[in-house]
Structure formats: structure tokens, C-alpha cells
Design a protein that fits this description.
single chain, alpha/beta, elongated, three-stranded mixed beta sheet, 33% helix, five-stranded parallel beta sheet, binds S-adenosylmethionine
Amino acid sequence: MAALRLDVFTQIPHAFAWLTEQQPVAGVLGTELELRLFNYRDTTPLRAGQVDDEPYGGGPGMVLRVDVVAAALEAVYGGRPEQRVIALTPQGVQLDQPLVEELAEEPALTLLSSRFEGFDERIVEHLCTDAISIGPYVLSGGELPAMVLVDALVRRLPGALAAGSGEHESFSVELDGGLEYPHYTRPAEFHGWEVPEVLLSGNHGHIEEWRREQSRARSVR
Ligand SMILES: C[S@@+](CC[C@H](N)C(=O)[O-])C[C@H]1O[C@@H](n2cnc3c(N)ncnc32)[C@H](O)[C@@H]1O
């Protein structure tokens, strides 16, 4: 059984093709990760694949209907899912690494995306356990936010990253939640821009100390 099952509801399932072909998702798909994509249009009780409607009270744009989302959840789970159901919305709690770590503990999650004007508020209120924003700006749809969350969660799965590469990253416990120190690679000098001497010294104690200092200095900005 997969360590994590993610169910994403969207109007554009094919948007996720890119994500599933890239590392780290591609590497754990079918083993540590089960990713299921559902299109609201496939289970809508409305005619001609309709999923949204005009807002009551007037105004521009279309709103994702509560009956459509309820029917989609019913079709997949036979009722209300037992797992957390997350609405991706700019009005939600802002995603950060501690929230990613918390969600990564769950065996299964449902992610709901919307488009245009967003969700009928009753979806968020009655069908969801969480509302999450990926940042204080507005995107055109929930597909990119869903992919952001999927990618962040997948990085926490065993085998998703090369050994050690998920440690000492920005926001990790190893760096006390701070930012990562700077990295450099060859050439050691380019246009007069030199790599810090300590990194070329071979003295691992000094390198470790320098990195800690750099991380601390960046994190207090
Ligand atoms: C154009 S937005 C709707 C914005 C909404 N009318 C508002 O002003 O808050 C359409 C959809 O994109 C997704 N979305 C846009 N920005 C997002 C963000 N920062 N975080 C999470 N989801 C977002 C949500 O699923 C949202 O319902």
C-alpha cells in the first residue's frame, strides 16, 4: 500500500501530466504515492457537463456548485470521505513547511481545486476540513496550487529524494526552521567572482560552522 494517497478533484486533470512525469513525483508514483485525479465533469448531476453557475446577487464570473462537488465526493467515497478534504483557495490558511509536515503525516488527503470566481462557500464550510492558500496572490485556478502541495508532500516521502538531499534544506529542523546556506560549484572563480575560501579548504568543521553562520544570518532578515 502507498504511504500517501492523494485524490485531486479538478476540471483539468490533464494539467497534472507534467507533474507526474517529473522527479520526485515520477519516482514514487505507484509505490509510495498513489495519485488519483477526478474531473468534476465526469460525475456532475447537471446536463452537458455543467459544473458551475452564476453567482447569486450578481457579479462577474462563474462559481463552482456545491451539488457538483458533493456528487463528485459521493461517487468516489460513497459519502463524506474520512480523510481531510482541502479546498485550495487564496482565502485559506497560508501553506508553510510546518503545515506541509503536518499534512505529510496523513495517509490520505483530498484536494479540491476550483476556477473562475471560486467555490460556492458551502463547499468550504460543509464539505471541507481545511482551506489552504499557497500565497497571498490570486491564480486562475487551483491546479497549480494543488501541484505545489503535491510536490511539497511528495518530497517528504521515503525514496522521493536522493539520500540526505531533503535534510538541511530551508525551513528544516536541521537548520532550526531557517533558510539554507549558499551553495557554489565549479568554476572556483568566474569573472573575478570567487567561491568563499572556506569551502575550498577541505576542513569540514570550518565548513559546517560557516554554513551554520550563513544560514543564521539569512534567516534573521
Ligand atoms: C481566480 S481564483 C478565485 C479567487 C476568488 N474569487 C477570490 O477573490 O478569493 C480561482 C481558483 O483558483 C485557485 N486559487 C487561486 N489562487 C490561489 C491561491 N493563492 N492559493 C490556492 N488556490 C488558489 C482556487 O481554487 C480558486 O478558487
